[in-house]
Amino acid sequence: MTYREPARTTTRRIRIRRIRVAGLLVVIAAIAAALGSQLPASSSSTATSPTDVPRSEHRGLRSEHRGAPGAPGAPGERGALGEADGAVLDGTTVFDDEIRGVANLDPALLGALRQAATDAADDGVEFVVDSGWRSPEYQEKLLHEAVLKYGSEQEAARWVTTPSRSAHVSGDAVDIGPSGAAAWLSEHGAEYGLCQIYGNELWHYELRPEAIAHGCPSMYADPTHDPRMQQ
Ligand SMILES: [Zn+2]
């Protein structure tokens, strides 16, 4: 897990450059490629981490920046996905208003997350947003990648849903990492109305205001058991 610190430092540098020099996409792509090439090595050391699955999903998006325009498999300009689609950089927090993946979340969900993150910080736990709001295009891409990864639409549906059904696309869901933060939420989230919804996604939280008084509802084993996904 020691790789996180240098990665985060690099991320801050990327963010500053993105803000200051909007045109330096080539530099960003090079850094993203460098980051991406580090990930396979680091993921092997965290293979048992519950956040492995979403991180690998989002790695797919990052790798999108690697391909040169026009190269085989590379996106055209219109097909490229970035921050405007909800992609987040490593180390993004629930307080990062300038990141659309955070800013486009439902205000009530975001408020609860910020309260929880503030209290978690007192316990020495930092929340990182691995994914928040996503554009339909981003969701579609994640779904496409999941079908390739899991080999069938049926199996992919256990992890990634369609844009029209996704709580990420509607701004009602957030994936929180690292595993220590998810564990903190598992213990304290209900006090803020923040609930894990699916047994197989330890990082995926949605707002259930009634949980403050009554506790979180029982989880679905995975999204395919969620009635919202069967409409
Ligand atoms: Zn999620």
Task: Chart the SSEs and their pairings.
Elements: H1 4-20, H2 25-45, H3 52-64, H4 100-103, H5 107-122, E1 128-131, H6 136-150, H7 153-156, E2 173-177, H8 179-188, E3 194-196, E4 204-207, H9 211-214
Antiparallel strand pairs: 1-2, 2-4, 3-4
The structure holds zinc ion.
The site of zinc ion (ZN) has 5 residues, from strand 2.
Structure description:
It is a single chain. The chain has 231 residues and is α+β, with helices and mostly antiparallel strands. A 4-stranded antiparallel β-sheet has the order 1-2-4-3. The N terminus is likely disordered. Zinc ion binds next to strand 2.
Q: Which short descriptors sum up this protein?
A:
about 230 residues, disordered N terminus, globular, alpha+beta, single chain, binds zinc ion, four-stranded antiparallel beta sheet
What's the gist of this structure?
The chain is of the alpha+beta class and 231 residues long. The chain is 45% helix and 7% strand. The longest helix is centred in the first third of the chain and has 21 residues, at 25-45.
Number of strands: 4
**Bound ligands, named by name, code or SMILES:** zinc ion
Backbone CA Rg: 17 Å
- Which structural class should the secondary elements be placed in? alpha+beta
* Helix share bin: 40-55%
Strand order of the largest sheet: 1-2-4-3
Largest beta-sheet details: 4 strands, antiparallel
Per DSSP, the total helix count is 9
The parts where pLDDT drops under 50 for at least 5 residues are 1-19, 21-78
The end-to-end distance, rounded to whole angstroms, is 40 Å
Task: Return the string of H and E elements.
Answer: HHHHHEHHEHEEH
